[in-house]
Each structure stands twice: as structure tokens, then as C-alpha cells.
Design goal:
- By secondary structure, this protein is of the alpha+beta class.
- It has 2 domains: about 30 residues; about 110 residues, Alpha-D-Glucose-1,6-Bisphosphate, Chain A, domain 4.
- The protein has 3 helices and 6 strands; from the N terminus they run αββαββββα.
- Helix 2 packs across helix 3.
Length: about 140
């Protein structure tokens, strides 16, 4: 009697898992690399221009990364082309993305472009876009 209940529960669980997979396949673009202004699947993710100096924006970007859960700054540098920051993003154990941020002067402002790429998975279920949105939101907060 008990084994019949376990089988029914197992079938229901399998059906729910299959439904979740189908939902994810329909809901999210099948990509693992997202960049502001260059990924047509996310037209709302655009490069940002700030009125502050390049150095001020770079410092705010480092602070934004440090203040976000799951984000870790792994490198930064500057030169004639502007500032560049590299971070790792781990929304949960076993899943990691690389975040690249470029900061440079452009037309009287400071331009920020962001790229997020999944490390292990060929399809990110929207996580790279969420990484970029989280970072830009935190940067906006620091530069207000």
C-alpha cells in the first residue's frame, strides 16, 4: 500500500520537474553571455553615462561590487582606455559568472558598459541579466 503512494508522489514530482524545465525553456533566452547595449534579448540593458569623473565612477563601481551579496572583485586596472574591473558572481554554490566592467570618459560624461558570462553552463536562465541589473542598480545608488 505504501509503495503505491511513493510511486504516485514520484510521478507527480517528475511531472512538476518537467513542467519547470519547459517553463524555463520558454521563459528565458538560450544564451550565457549578456552585454549592455549588445544583447538583443535584453534591450533594456543599456550602457550608462554618469556626470561624475571616471575615477569617481570607478571607485563607486568597486564599492557597488563589494556591497552586493555573491559578488567578489577579482581584479582592476586603469590606463589610457579607462578603467576595467573584473568580478566573480556566485548567486548560489556551484554556479559562477564572470562580470567585466569598462569605465571611460565619453562625450563629457563617464560611460559604463557591463558584460556577464556564465562559466560552466551553456544557458544562464536569465542570471547574467540579473547580475548586470543588480550591479547597475547598486552603482546608481552610489552615484546619486
Amino acid at each position: 500500500m505504501r509503495s503505491c503512494g511513493v510511486r504516485v508522489f514520484g510521478r507527480i514530482a517528475l511531472l512538476l520537474l518537467a513542467a519547470a524545465v519547459v517553463w524555463a525553456m520558454v521563459r528565458f533566452p538560450h544564451i550565457a553571455d549578456v552585454e549592455t547595449g549588445k544583447t538583443p534579448e535584453y534591450p533594456d540593458l543599456k550602457p550608462r553615462t554618469y556626470p561624475q569623473s571616471e575615477a569617481r565612477v570607478a571607485k563607486a563601481a568597486e564599492d557597488a561590487i563589494g556591497g552586493l551579496s555573491g559578488f567578489a572583485l577579482v581584479g582592476s586596472g586603469s590606463g589610457t582606455g579607462g578603467h576595467s574591473l573584473q568580478a566573480k558572481v556566485s548567486p548560489f554554490p556551484g554556479v559562477e559568472s564572470d562580470l567585466s566592467i569598462k569605465i571611460r570618459r565619453d562625450k563629457g560624461g563617464t560611460l559604463v558598459t557591463v558584460r556577464s558570462r556564465s562559466g560552466a553552463l551553456p544557458w544562464d536562465f536569465g542570471q547574467n541579466a540579473r547580475n548586470i541589473k543588480a550591479f547597475l542598480g547598486a552603482l546608481d545608488d552610489r552615484l546619486r
